[in-house]
Amino acid sequence: MNKTIYFIRHGETEYNKLGIVQGSGIDSELNEVGQQQAQAFFNHYQNVNFELVIASGLQRTHQTVAPFIQNKKIPFEKTPLINEINWGIHEGQKYEPWMKDSYQKMIKEWSVGNFDASLEKGESARSLADRLQQFLDGIVQRPEKEILVCTHGRTLRCMMCLVSQQHLREMETYHHHNTGLYKTHWKNGAFEVELKNDTLHLNG
Fold first, then answer.
1. Which residues, at least 6 apart from 146, have a Cβ–Cβ distance to it below 8 Å?
2. Angle between helices 153-163 and 125-139 (to 10 degrees)
3. What is the pTM of this model?
4. What whole-number distance in Å separates Cα of residue 199 and Cα of residue 11?
5. CATH code of 13's domain
6. What is the end-to-end Cα distance of the chain in Å, rounded?
7. CA 155, CA 16: separation in Å to the nearest integer?
8. What is the pLDDT of residues 3-28, one digit of tens each?
């Protein structure tokens, strides 16, 4: 069955604003800017005939899609399969030079195919990709034709590699803005990507 799936990143949080690492272990809320971004996305896409809204298990994604749930009464589901990656001991910490060094070391490992590398007590790229593939395998089997999915930055990067059938080392080529949209189409057993990190809705 052909379908269109809209993948967006959550709106801004104070952790984003202050440069503090979030990840799956930090359940932060949207700040005022994030709420405005969520409303702007709703204003722009409220006339799309979404049949289902899916968010991660973290409240910043729930709050981002809340206008669709509250105003359009669209069925809503939550799943930890699309939670942000766990950044281990970096979570809750303001970005410091020592963190940058260990992060870049991990990214370098990923670039040469070592997807089991992770930050201390954190999640690997392989683990992230495995649960995202499980999510994608499920969503393409669903009956709904128009679906909105709200998730997280690193999750989106990994998701788009899987959607585009690219090697995971290509994650760094994908960018993400708060409420940035990746619009995809599932046709004939494969995905096509129409929009990448689109923020047109924020220009108004």
1. 3, 4, 6, 48, 49, 50, 51, 52
2. 60
3. 0.96
4. 12
5. 3.40.50.1240
6. 34
7. 16
8. 999 999 999 999 999 999 999 999 99
Q: Which residue has the tokens 């440069």?
A: 19
Buried b (16+ CB within 10 A) or exposed e, 119-141: beebbbbeebbebbeebbeebee
Place of tokens 């359940």: 27
Pair 203, 37: CB distance under 8 Å = no
**Which of 125, 159, 178, 149 has its CA nearest to residue 50?**
149
DSSP 100: H
Residue 154: domain span: 3-202
**Domain count for the chain:** 1
Name, in order, each residue with C-beta under 8 angstroms of 98's C-beta and a sequence gap of 6 or more.
Answer: none
Q: What is the pLDDT of residues 161-204, one digit of tens each?
A: 999 999 999 999 999 999 999 999 999 999 999 999 999 999 97
203 backbone dihedrals φ, ψ, rounded to 5°: -80, -15
Output phi, psi for 81, to 5 deg.
Answer: -60, -30
Q: How many residues in the chain?
A: 204
